[in-house]
Amino acid sequence: MNNNNKTILLVEDNPDQVLLAERALKKANVDGNMVVMADGEQALNYLNGKSGSELPHVVLLDLGLPGIGGLEVLQQIRNSPQTRNLPVVILSTSDEVSDKRDGYAIGANSYILKPVEFKRFVHVVERLAEYWLELNEHYTNKVN
User: Most CB within 10 Å of its CB: which of 21, 32, 102, 136?
Assistant: First the structure.
């Protein structure tokens, strides 16, 4: 895949999950840049410091974050004129109906359960990258 000028923002506090995602992206031959933020506050600060074409092409958001939780991060992304159209994929181990319902109600573009098996995780990451970095037409608000 040719994604070298495209960025994935991974918001994940578990270093093992971050390593797994990095390995999966490499194994899936995804050339895009992955930026990792370990908590919701870092992610929001990162996004608020970007504008227009500097924004990531997709946010992969864990729900169980320290401090500002994933659903609150999503809410703040959707409330900001600068980031409201940013694609956000919840990537979580939670299979709770309430988490799925709330995630979609707030504005998640997708909700994906994190696979336990590495091979399956690689497959999921490869499909995510293919869709969000190759097939999806990226749009950002141009806010002054």
Answer: 21
